[in-house]
């Protein structure tokens, strides 16, 4: 394949190949190759190993350095339609970057906002989108502090595209892919597939759209609650493009460890199930914009689950990381049968975020 196809933006196998085999090789560096949701930056030379020390081992100078450690993330948003049940492109632009920072243990502080606007977009629509973005950012303790605006002729853009970048202050030890280890428990913060199903239903003008609401929301609050309770997640990932399936397969591939998941523990609404049956999708592959998966030590499993359920009653413990080293995701159904949950392939559902 010598050209970019829509499948390269779907969050599955083709996108991972594009990122790892081309983009990461061109921009090769240690920070990028760690493949976390955000880059963890160390302007004062404070190493990640220092976060593994017990608090009593950290000197006052170390504490000062820790408070200066930052994370940096960027994302572009091209969702269509730009307004959907549960949000709009402005809300999703704020949530996307805030959530990526939260997934590595950082609290968003500053956002940039760059707009590419198609000629003909109404000022009232633009105002609604930007107000949504601003409110979502402020509710998470962040401010938009810089940006850029470009206007292109009709037909050169789909109403509006938004890029947001974010800088966050690290408030916990980094949650990174390299922390994954055998015996860790896998938790899911809510039910899955709602955002992807809402976008699909809206495009196809299905009546389900009015009954089903996107899960689009900031995850800053629930992540901070975990840290405040003394929970130290090994790794976290918001299950956006490619859904839960893509997130788990990325973990399995990068860690080299097998991940065992119980299907009966994964919550899927009846509406999402109906959309999947109608169009031939799997709920595990549909995008989420306010649901994340996390790995925790066994001793933290129940406490973490209690906190997650204060924010979403559908949160559940769904599996564990095995000691076998083949890098697979194994899904067991309610009858005990097992199959491999493979990384998404093909076009899937483009333009969902």
Describe this structure in words.
The relative contact order is 0.17. Strand 13 (329-332) and strand 14 form a beta hairpin. The chain is 31% helix and 22% strand. The chain is built from 10 helices and 14 strands. The protein starts with 12 loop residues before the first helix and ends in a 13-residue tail after the last strand. The strands form 3 sheets. A 7-stranded mixed sheet has the order 9-11-8-12-10-13-14. The chain has a 5-stranded mixed sheet with strand order 1-2-7-5-6. It has helices at 13-26, 30-33, 60-68, 89-102, 123-139, 194-203, 220-228, 243-255, 270-279, 301-311; strands spanning 39-41, 70-77, 83-84, 87-88, 106-118, 143-152, 160-170, 185-188, 235-238, 259-262, 292-296, 316-321, 329-332, 338-340. The longest helix is centred in the middle third of the chain and has 17 residues, at 123-139. The model is unreliable at 50-66 (pLDDT under 50). The radius of gyration is 20 Å and the shape is globular. Helix 4 (89-102) packs parallel to helix 5 and helix 6 crosses helix 9 (270-279). With 353 residues, it is α+β, with helices and mostly antiparallel strands.
Can you describe this structure in just a few lines?
With 353 residues, the chain is an alpha+beta fold. It is built from ten helices and 14 strands.
